[in-house]
Amino acid sequence: MNRKRIAACLLSVAVLAGTVSFVSAQESTAADTKALLGALGIMQGDDTGNFNDGGALTREQFAKIVVKIADKDFIPAGGIAPFFDVPHTRWSAPFIDRGVTLGYFNGFPDGSFQPETEVLPEQVCNVVLKMLGRDESNAGGNWAQSKVAAAGRLGLLEGVTYVIGQPISRIDTAKIIQNALFTQMKDSKVYLIEKMECSYLEDVVLISDKNTQSGYVTTTAGVFKKAGAVDQEDLRLRGDLVVGKANEVIAFFPANQTCRHDALKEIYPDKMVLVNSEQITQEFYVNADTCIYLGGSALTFGKGFSSVPKGADVWLYYDEYGTLEYIFAEESTAASQKTFVIKSVLDDGITAFGHSGDEYVKIDNDTVVYEGTLASAYAQAAGTLSLGDKLTFHENESGVLKYITLERNAISGPGYVEAFTVNSETRVIRDGLSAKKGDVLSTDICYYVDGADVLLAYSKSITGVYENAYPTKDSIAQVQVSGKIYDVTERSAKSKLSSDGNIAFGDTVTLRFGKDGGVADAVSLNESDTLSGVLLSCAPSVRVDAAGNTVSEYRAKIFTLAGETQEFAVDKDETLLNGSPVTISFSNGKAALSAVNKKNEVSGTFHWQAKKLGNYVLSNDLKMIDAAMKTDYSKAKAKKIYPQRIDGAHFSENDILLAEVKDGAVTGLILNDYTGDLLQYGVVLKAQGLSFGTNAAGSYKVNIGGAETELGSSQKKFNVSTGQSISIDTDEKNGVVSLKALNRLEEAVKSIDNSFVYTASGAHRLADNAVIYREIANSELSTGVRFEVISKENVDFTKNVTAYYDKKEADGGRIRVVVVRK
């Protein structure tokens, strides 16, 4: 074998999948070795991708590595104290106990294990020899020298630098392990790597990745997931495969072959006439039993020669001695392929990413779609498609679509923007909206659509205290951060949050989310870092921590500037701060809330395109929420606001509860119940007020967005009447806080589109959730009225069409209700 090709997810901030090639530990680079062991989950770097090559391994770290090889499915559990200096609370205790049970480790004569002592090369050799079943007793002489000599005879020390009696480096330990993985056990043809539930398959030909499930390769040994370990350049080669438990290729070892690639001019039962690019012809005699692969099928040359068309591409593969091993032939036509990366799936096709814009692609329901060996009609496949999947349209020379092949998740990433080649011409989409390269932050999770030159960026993140991991910290699918559970979908995030990573339970962590809504990366925060938001409520709570202990604490619900409701454990009841803007700092797994007492000084007109608010500069990544707290509320209200919502609006100092300013730019705003978007809007179907001495009460039937409901107040009577358009403010339990009549636009509405209503004097901006009501005939004000909700297309502008607004546009107001009357 002359090289290996290894599947690996490089655990760096770029979080990009990659492949590497090497011959053996002696000839391979350190990066190759690290990639192989990382792909197998044996040894990995820290959360920054640093493997610390020159650093030494401790005995406890080495014990964990050995257990991961010898007992791949081992799940560490607490309550074990294998040595007096390894208490049950120590992270390594389960691994050391398992390693001792398996017979690979012993303690020292004084009963200790010395978990933090650096491991020596002779100790590494001793354990690896035991794993290979080659723990021969020392016939005499120096123990350390005998173990190193035995390892050397097996080739375990190829490419390794060491000094007996001195700590061995992490990278040299990794190379010994790499060599051992591809060494046969004593008295067996089984390789050590097969103990990790991997299959080692020799002399396999990689036939094709066409007409098979996307992301798979057909071989002479079966169909396997490519998993990044098989490139196009590997197809048609013979070699050895390492295949994982999930049927994925972990490593490919191509054999020492040579190849000739020409076009077929003539073919006979015993020979082929080939022509090269310089139009020089040459005859090649072929035995009848030589294997020829045609269209993915294997035939003998004697039976298959007549099926090879003239002009076909032909590859002749020879072994290291020059003997013809097999032939590949593929029809060469003017057929073409078109590739599309899916942005969204429609009823009759897809929207695909394009450099200058999205492209609509129509697909007939009966079109055949191949995903590996599985073929289905597009009508069935469509329901499984998602953003980032790639469809390749295979057409004949006449341009007629023959079939489609599907490749899942074909875009690059996730990573950070610096990991991708992005220039001023690259199309940028951030959080689903068109953006510019400068709008993408260094903290955004990004993906790159190759071919279309499109960068996708996602800014969503949350910060909180890392409380638990499920099902375990060594096998993470979900994490609990500040009381909420999140799916972890990317390997880098899983690594950082696992027991191998540097983020521990109780640490403050920022989770960053990718295109599938799962956690793509995790970053530790310093205790000096703070968050801002509005306290919604605070109440006592009980939870079970990662150690199984019951914890009683107060939980503060905060609507953060990121637009997310999060829960934080706090030391005391903070109810008095309900509805107030607060800053949140972290220490020892708890959040500390501080009220914002400084008076806001930011005011002026908001201009998003110019990135100005009065005299202040606005950050490209400005975050905003609108918040309200009233005495009648049992819980404060808050909502995320986008810059476009308040573009052109004017703010006084009192309209803003908190303005965060960093490096001279406004990065966050908490508005003081400014937009009106925290309220509901509708029409009064019937209003009835009652008086009891000095007390007043009211009963109100309203239509809110098409739903009719009864609202009552035992202590208040509101100044609204039947038929009016109103704003509706309720508390958390849907109790009425206020009903107020909306302002009537004096001019009749002439037309409506998605953004505006138009009158004789001009355009008036619609709220995103504005509702159009049509009065139902024969309703009378004395007995109540009825309305139905209609679309803008069904408005009869010959009728009386009236619009109602909450306040002036310059103050953030919008048209909330449109009514078509008899």
Supply the key terms.
mainly beta, 822 residues, 7-stranded mixed β-sheet
Description:
By secondary structure, this protein is mainly beta. 10% of the residues lie in helices and 42% in strands. The strands form 9 sheets. A 7-stranded antiparallel β-sheet has the order 2-1-7-6-3-4-5. The protein has a 7-stranded mixed β-sheet with strand order 10-9-8-13-14-11-12. Strand 50 and strand 51 (756-759) form a beta hairpin. It is flat. Mean pLDDT is 85; it is low at 1-27 and 691-695.
Summarize, please:
With 822 residues, this protein is mainly β.
Q: Supply Rg.
A: 35 Å
Question: Whole-number average pLDDT?
Answer: 85
Shape: flat
The secondary-structure class comes to mainly beta
| Biggest sheet architecture | 7 strands, antiparallel
Q: Helical segment tally? A: 9
> Total strand count, please?
55
| Portion in helices | under 10%
Question: Topology of this structure?
Answer:
Elements lengths: L3 E6 L7 E6 L7 H10 L19 H12 L22 H9 L19 H11 L11 H11 L16 H12 L17 E10 L7 E4 L2 E4 L12 E6 L5 E6 L3 E11 L2 E5 L5 E5 L5 E4 L2 E4 H4 L8 E6 L5 E7 L5 E11 L2 E4 L6 E4 L5 E4 L2 E4 H4 L8 E6 L5 E7 L4 E4 L11 E4 L2 E3 L9 E5 L4 E5 L2 E12 L2 E7 L2 E4 L3 H7 L10 E6 L5 E6 L6 E14 L5 E11 L4 E6 L10 E7 L2 E6 L8 E4 L4 E2 L2 E13 L8 E5 L8 E2 L4 E7 L2 E8 L7 E13 L2 E10 L2 E7 L11 E6 L5 E6 L1 E2 L6 E2 L3 E4 L2 E14 L11 E4 L9 E6 L9 E7 L1
Parallel strand pairs: 11-14, 18-21, 23-26, 39-43, 52-55
Antiparallel strand pairs: 1-2, 1-7, 3-4, 3-6, 4-5, 6-7, 8-9, 8-13, 9-10, 11-12, 13-14, 15-16, 15-20, 16-17, 18-19, 20-21, 22-25, 23-24, 25-26, 27-28, 27-30, 28-29, 30-31, 32-33, 32-35, 33-34, 35-36, 37-38, 37-41, 38-39, 39-40, 42-43, 44-45, 44-47, 45-46, 47-48, 49-54, 50-51, 51-52, 52-53, ...
